[in-house]
Amino acid sequence: MNRVISLVRAQLSGEVLGERTPVAAIAMQVVVAGLLCAVVRGEVGGFGYGLFALSIPLALTTVPLLGELSPLLQADRASEWVGAQPVTPKDLRAARVLTLLSIVGMLALASLIPAALLAPGTMGWGERGALVIGGLAQTWVLAALLLGLQGFLAKAGQGAAVLLQTVVFLGVLVGVLTGLRSLSALSSLTGAEPILRWAPQAWFAAPLASAGQPFLFAAAALSIALGAFILWVAPFPKAPGARSTGSVLSILLSPLRRLAEGLWVRPEERGPFAFVYDALPAERDFVIRTYPLVAAPLLFMVMGADPTKLEGEGLYALLLFAPAAYLPFVLLHVPTTSTPEARWVVDTSPIEHTVEDRGAMKAVAVRLLAPLYLGIGAMVYTLASPGLCLRLWPVAVAVGFITLRLLYRGGAARPLSARANDLASAWNDGLGGMIIAVAVGMTLIAVAAWRMVPNMWIGWVILGAWLLVEMTVFGTKGRGQTQPA
Predict the structure, then answer these.
(1) In 3D, which of 47, 99, 41 has the Cα closest to residue 71?
(2) CA 346 to CA 107: how far, in whole Å?
């Protein structure tokens, strides 16, 4: 155990914690859990409160485990070097598992402790303690199941991981929207309802049920046994290696890329443009954090937007302007890479930072923003009405690309130059306020365009004017000196 404890200390003091302690993630869990539990505590009984409280760490722990904490579910990059020390493979395995359980448990406690302190007065301290213990067990079982999925996800490729992350992200948002509307149903639950047999939260909230529920206790015990077995035998897969940049989407976008390189991207910008265009979508840390945001606008569909009604048409109008609303978050992760050491290839090239920023911004516009607007436009054209799409889509595209140019500010973090954990300090630099401001601004612009643009011709004139300015001022024929690529 001395060897195992030494290994755990080394891992906890390394990149996962150390100077990069996930303070932001822990603080978010505390704030979210505190606010939600404070709202719910007076509306439900003990068992219903337990179901609600255990849903919070279930959601808030799954998302980071699939994102910034995914290295915990992978083999230690230094395993070969550590294995040369006087330790056994079992020591390495035990240390890796304990490190995973420690960090995941710490994140879970960040929401479980506020939930226990804010529990209804009808719950005694024993029940509150059972809530915390059940939440920890549930979170550890979840981590074990995700570890078991890593082998499948590694074989299926990056797309499977992104799809899983998107489903989880969308499920969390839908759960928040629908769960807060169903508090009255939670207050009447006793634990004997058949539907609860499929809910993991109910298994671990069994001690809070009004009557003994043997099935829930048995399900919790079996899931704990399964999780322990997976943690004992499941291999920690190696970190994802190099990936091809020749995806289906890149092939479909190749005509648009050639058009942009001929009319918009200046000769001196083509190097950084091609670098960011090809490499950024291959960065797992970038993809896993930003691509699930594409699913966020689909919540409008989940909310049942009816285009035949005035409110439904307004939601589709907001949907068209949604991509620009989360541009600040996307741009934050443009510097994200798992191999920042490789930046020397770019840093030693004779290119100015301003030129690199312009090329990177245009790459983001063509590779990320353009297909997103094309996809959402096709969705609104099909599900809502062609007239609404043709009237507002050109305005939304122009506003989105103008917003990109206004927001993109190259700073100390160059494109593809820093690890994702090193970018977390940007939240403390006003990014949260910027996201809110941009979201409010896009909402107001969407409503104004929906109300004030009477026909499609005005929208297309606005889009044409923006294209003319971009091509003549910032394009290949623009003013200013150019250098060979």
Answers:
(1) 99
(2) 37
Longest CA–CA separation in the chain, Å: 79
Q: What is the distance in angstroms between the CA of the first residue and the CA of the last residue of the chain? A: 59
Q: With contact defined as beta carbons under 8 Å apart, do 286 and 415 qualify?
A: no
> Which bin fits 169, alpha (ψ -120 to 50), beta or left (φ > 0)?
alpha
Q: Indicate the SS3 state at residue 336.
A: strand
**Coil, strand, or helix at residue 457?**
helix
Q: Taking phi first (over 0 means left), then psi (-120 to 50 degrees means alpha), and beta for anything else, what does residue 12 get?
A: alpha
Q: Strand, helix or coil at 429?
A: helix
- How many residues does this entry show for the chain? 485
Query: pLDDT of 287-337, one tens digit each?
Result: 877 877 766 666 655 565 666 676 667 788 888 898 888 888 888 888 888
DSSP bridge partners of 391: none
The residues pairing with 418 across neighbouring beta strands, listed in sequence order, are 336
Separation of alpha carbons 261 and 268, rounded Å? 11
User: How many Å apart are CA 66 and CA 57, to the nearest integer?
Assistant: 14
Q: From 39, 302, 72, 24, select the one nearest 172 (Cα to Cα).
A: 302
Quick one: pLDDT band at residue 436, thresholds 50, 70, 90? confident
Helices (H), 384-455: 386-407, 431-452
Distance from C-alpha of 38 to C-alpha of 119, rounded to nearest angstrom: 8
Q: What is the pLDDT of residue 480?
A: 47
- Confidence band (pLDDT; 50, 70, 90) for 484? very low
Phi/psi at 35 (5° precision): -65, -45
CA dist 50 and 68 (Å) reads 28
Strand partners, 336: 418
Distance CA 206, CA 214 (A): 9
Its pTM stands at 0.72
pLDDT (tens digit, 9 = 90+) per residue, 444-464?
998 899 888 888 899 899 999
Q: What is the pLDDT of residue 481?
A: 46
